[in-house]
Amino acid sequence: MKNSIELRQDRAELIGKADSMLNLAKDETRDFTNDEQVSYDGVMQNIDKLAKDIQVVERQEKLNAEISASPVTHSVQNDTMANERRDYSLFKAVNGLMNNNLSGLEKEMHEEAIQEARSTGATINGIGIPSSLQYESRAGIVSEGSSSIAPTTLGAFQDGLREAAIYEQVGATVLNGLAANTEIPVVGANSAAYIDGENANATDVGNNFSSITLSPKRIGGFVDLSKQLMMQVGTGAEAAIVRDLGRSIGEAMNAAMFKIGNVSGADQSIGEYSVGNVSPTAYVAGSSTVADMLTMEEALAEAKGLQGNLAYVVNPVNMKDIRTGALVSSISAVQDSKASFNGYPIVFSTGCEKRAASHKDSMAIFGDFSKLYVGNYGVLDIMVDPYTQGIKGAVRLVLNKYASFGVSNGASFVKCLLKHTA
Predict the structure, then answer these.
(1) pLDDT value, residue 394
(2) What three-state secondary structure class fits 14?
C-alpha cells in the first residue's frame, strides 16, 4: 500500500476530477447523464475508500513513529510525511485563497478540512486546517541529527494556546479531535461504607450516576497581517503570527471559564457555577488574603475534595498580597519555574476577573482541575478578510475554533472573592 502522502495526492486528484465533472454540468445548466452519474458515483466511492485507507495508514505511521523513540532511527516514509507536514505554510494558504490559486499541501489540507467539517455538519468559510494536522504538531517531531524540528505553523499555534490558556497549565482533562456532542459519565455522590449487623441487609451506598455533555461552541480570535510581511514570508514571522492567534484563543477561553458571570454563548463558567463558596474575611493588609486561601483549602478538605490536580487560579492583582501575607504568616509561597502557595500551584491570570463594581476584590478558585473537562472539536477555520484593514495594507485573519468545557463535580472546587490593596 502507498504511504499517506501518496494516498492524499491520489485523493486530491479524484476530488479535483469530481469537482470538474460537477462544474461542467452546472455550467451547462443540466443534470448528469446516466453515464456521467455512474462515473461520478464511482469517483466518490473511491474518494471515500481512500479516506479510510489514509486513516489506517496514518495510524500505523504514527505507531511506527512512537516505537522509533531513538533520534536516529526514522524510516524514510515517516520522515517524508513529517517533512511534508512541517512544510505547511499558513501564509502560502492565505495568498492562495486570496488569488484563487491554492495548491500543493495547503490545498490538500484545506480539502481534507472541508471533508472533515462536512462529516460533522459544519462548513468552512475560509482556510481549513484539519484536526490531523493540528494535533500532530506536537507529536509528529522529526529528528535530524541532534535537533528536533516540529511543524512550524501549528506548533506555534499550540504553543501560543498553551502559554495563554489557564486550563493547559492547571491539569484540566483535555479531549482532542471530538466530532459531536460528547457525554461524560459522572459519579453523583461519594461512595460510603457502613458497618451492618451480621445478618442485616447491606446498606445502599447511594452512588448516583449522571453525566455532563460537551457540545461545540465557537470561539473567535483575529490578527491583522501586513501584506508586505506576507511577501517577505519567513518561518519566524509566520510562527509569531500564528502564536498570537493561539494566545488570543486561549485568553478568550480563560474569560469564558473563570468570569464571575457567564459569557454570552459560552458554557457555564466556574466563577458562575454552583461550586463551593467561601466568604472572604475582612481585609487586613498582609494577613487576610492568606487566611482566605487557607480557608478555601480547609473547605475543600471538608468536602473530601483535597486530591487530584489541585491548583489556584487567581487574578494578578492579588500577587503582592499573597506573597507579603505568606511571608508574615510563614507560609510557603515560592516563585521558581512556577508560582505556588502552601505547596499548590498558582496560575495568575486576568481571566479570573476583578469585580467591576469596586475593583477591590477579585475571583479566586481552588480545586481539582482534572474535573474540568475541555473538548476541542474538528477543524480550524481561518477567514481571510482583505477589506477591513485594506486601507492600511493589511489582511485580517479571523480564526474560528470550536471548543467546549464543563465541570464534572462541583464539590471539587471552592471559590471566593479575595480582597486586595488599591
Answers:
(1) 87
(2) helix
- Cα 36-42-43 angle, rounded to 5 deg: 90
Query: 3-class DSSP state for residue 349?
Result: coil
The secondary element (H helix, E strand) that includes residue 17 is helix 4-27
The type of residue at 409 is: N
> What is the rounded CA–CA span in Å between residue 372 and residue 388?
37
Cα dihedral 80, 86, 90, 92 sign: negative
Query: 320: pLDDT confidence band, cut at 50, 70 and 90?
Result: confident
- Cα angle 52, 54, 57 (rounded to 5 degrees) comes to 110
Residue in this structure with the C-alpha cell 481561518, named with its chain if needed: 382
DSSP codes joined into one string, 85-142: HHT--HHHHHHHHHTT---HHHHHHHHHHHHHHHHTT---SSEEE-HHHHHHHHH-PE
**Distant-in-sequence, close-in-space partners of 126: CB < 8 Å, separation ≥ 6:** 97, 381, 382, 383, 384, 398, 400
pLDDT at 330 over 70: no
CB 413 within 8 A of CB 371: yes
Rounded to 5°, angle at Cα 217 from 214 and 220? 145
- Nearest 10 degrees: Cα torsion 156, 161, 167, 172: -40
pLDDT band at 147, cuts 50/70/90? very low
397 and 94 Cβ atoms separated by less than 8 Å = yes
Q: How far apart are CA 241 and CA 224, in angstroms?
A: 9
Distance of CA 332 to the CA centre of its chain: 32
Which stretches of 303-408 are DSSP H helices?
A: 319-329
Calpha distance 405→256 (Å, rounded): 9
* pTM above threshold 0.70: no
- 3-state DSSP call for residue 58? helix
The C-alpha atoms of residue 138 and residue 235 are separated, in whole angstroms, by 17
CA 114 to CA 274: how far, in whole Å? 39
Measure Cα distances from 181 to 398, 402, 417 in Å: 25, 12, 33
State the pairing for strand pair 344-348/142-144: unpaired
| Secondary structure (3-state) at 286 | coil
Calpha distance 328→321 (Å, rounded):
10
- Give per-residue pLDDT as tens, 86-124: 567 888 888 888 888 888 888 888 888 888 887 667 788
Amino acid at 354: K
Q: DSSP letter for 354, please.
A: B
DSSP state letter for 170: T
Q: Which amino acid is at 67?
A: I
What DSSP designation does 393 have? T
